[in-house]
Amino acid sequence: MRGPDLLRLAGGSLRGQPTRSGLTLLAMAIGVASVIVLAGLTEGARDYVRGQFQSLGANLLIVLPGRNETRGGPPPLLGATPRPLRLEDALALERLRTVRRVAPVVVGNVLVRHGGLEREVTVIGSTAAFLEVRRLRTAQGRFLPGGDPHRARPVAVLGARLKRELFGGREALGAWLRVQDRRFRVIGVLADTGQALGLDLGDMLVVPVASAQQLFDTEGLFRILVEAREAAQVAPTREAIGQVIRERHDGKDDVTIVTQGAMLSTFDRVFRALSLAIAGVAAISLLVAGILTMNVMLVSVSQRTAEIGLLKAVGAADRQVLSLILAESAALSLLGALAGLLAGLAAIALERRLFPGFPLALEGWAIAFATGAALATGIGFSLLPARRAARLDPVIALGAGR
Amino acid sequence: MIELLGLERVYRMGDEAVHALRQVELRIADGEYVAIMGPSGSGKSTLLHVVGLLDRPTAGRYLLDGVDTTTLSEPQRARLRRERIGFVFQAFHLIPRMTAAENIEVPMILAGIAPRERRRRVAEILERLGLADRAGHRPDQLSGGQRQRVAIGRAVVMHPGILLADEPTGNLDHQAGGQVMALLEALNTEGITLVVVTHDPAVGGRARRRVEMFDGRIVVDHTGPA
Ligand SMILES: Nc1ncnc2c1ncn2[C@@H]1O[C@H](COP(=O)(O)OP(=O)(O)OP(=O)(O)O)[C@@H](O)[C@H]1O
Ligand SMILES: [Mg+2]
Prior knowledge:
The complex is a heterodimer.
Chain A: H1 3-15, H2 18-54, E1 60-65, E2 85-86, H3 87-94, E3 99-114, E4 117-126, H4 129-133, E5 138-141, E6 155-158, H5 160-167, E7 176-179, E8 182-190, E9 195-196, E10 199-200, E11 205-208, H6 209-216, E12 220-221, E13 223-228, H7 234-248, E14 255-259, H8 260-303, H9 305-313, H10 318-354, H11 364-381, H12 383-390, H13 394-400
Parallel strand pairs in A: 4-11, 6-8
Antiparallel strand pairs in A: 1-13, 1-14, 2-12, 3-4, 3-7, 3-13, 5-8, 6-11, 7-8, 9-10
Helix pairs in contact in A: 1-10, 2-8, 2-10, 2-11, 8-11, 8-12, 9-13, 10-11, 10-12
Chain B: E1 2-13, E2 16-28, E3 33-37, H1 44-51, E4 59-64, E5 67-68, H2 74-83, E6 85-88, H3 100-110, H4 115-129, H5 144-156, E7 162-166, H6 174-189, E8 193-197, H7 201-204, E9 209-214, E10 217-223
Adenosine-5'-triphosphate binds at residues 11, 13, 18, 20, 38, 40-46 of chain B.
């Protein structure tokens, strides 16, 4: 039997039972589309998180107060509250040879008023170095001035959105804001750089670190951002930071130092596992489609018993009957996979238009895996009905049609 | 040349054994026209199925042109069915979703014959059957007699040496049955070996040789006018 004829015969019998063929095709398509879309979702999420970390710069180290066991031990007991990080700690780190910049950070929420408008705003207290460390730009005016970080100057830099909300199109530079019971003069507006690590800087107000400490009445720092001179120096810098802090904190290791690389690889591992797990779940739908194909082919074979007997009577060998049934399921799975592929691609394209900030990834491996799995399950599960058809006794089969 | 030597076909139904064929001895020369008759259940269809290589005998030998078919593999038997034997059934057994032309084409597709040659032969046969204007009709758009003629076309499209027909007129009225028998006999005149199973004495009486069966045995084997 010739290949094209095999396909034509298979196509003919599939068209002969449009409902059943259509349903099987649909099941295959749903399976394939869900693998592609779900893989795209997790990979997209992974890319998103990667992008967030990368926007911080490869040389970044973050020093957090408190010992955060990476092994995930129990939380500190009552009374064992860690000694807070202080501005002096940050200044001490500045003296390290491998460190380029240090930005102490204090964070808190306050009420900000201007004119008749009032808004609850997250305030970041830091130094001039914050701009470079966080790779920010100013759209207008200047960022925080350099000089003695202990000076609590009443100046503030606005996030792009906060500026729009408080001032609209009006000039913000030079204006006075009321922050709690203090007054701050606006000296700059940040450029809109979107989100990073879940903190939307567009909504924030940046003030000198000492001013923020006064606002929140605290001596402690939320964290210290340290930028190493080179990516290769991140590991020795981490050691050096640990040592400096230990010396300053009576020999206690009471801070956690996080590097971008360590966070990235942890997230990478988590997301890789997650996307495999989700693809596996989606693959179950392919398995279901395979079982459906088997049932459809079984019914189809038993309904066409007389026809199969006839084919044998006019000279079809067992092998030809086998390949005919397998060709039918292969054609179904292939068409289903194709339809699923198109649906998946369309869904991803649509999602990208609707949510350009969080684009789904188009994964080559997911497409290959989904198509391969669809074909494998479709053909694999129809081996049983195909064998059954091939082994039919032609005399009995012909009698079945009467 | 068909030679059946001591042929037995026993169906096992649980503990019971049904002897459908008992010690059948039969030789049919090339080009013969044989009618097989006998009461219902006497083993006529079973005999035809064995001769058509659709069924295997339980014992005995079946030589087709001197080749012992009982030792052949399944693919070899399929090949003989495809190339040497044509089958016509009482119930036509046309594939309902296919047109008349496509039904006739099926054995040639299984044999791997090229599409151009297939089209040529289908056209030739449809012409011969007087169904040229029905080529694109599906079986449900054809009369019983037309369906049986399409089935005969399918049976002879591979130019087999042997044509086996099991009650070919059983589902047809008198006139359509006459047309079908005339077609089969014309093919026999051109040299094909024709074996027809029938209940109908009028149909059987047209054959030069009549074999009568009873309870799985051949009880009469008569050549010449009835
Ligand atoms: N698949 C089978 N299983 C068991 N017994 C069978 C089978 N096929 C046929 N038989 C038996 O074999 C015997 C011969 O059957 P066969 O069909 O050859 O008769 P027949 O002469 O063609 O009858 P009819 O004129 O009714 O078609 C019958 O007794 C029948 O019951
Ligand atoms: Mg019969």
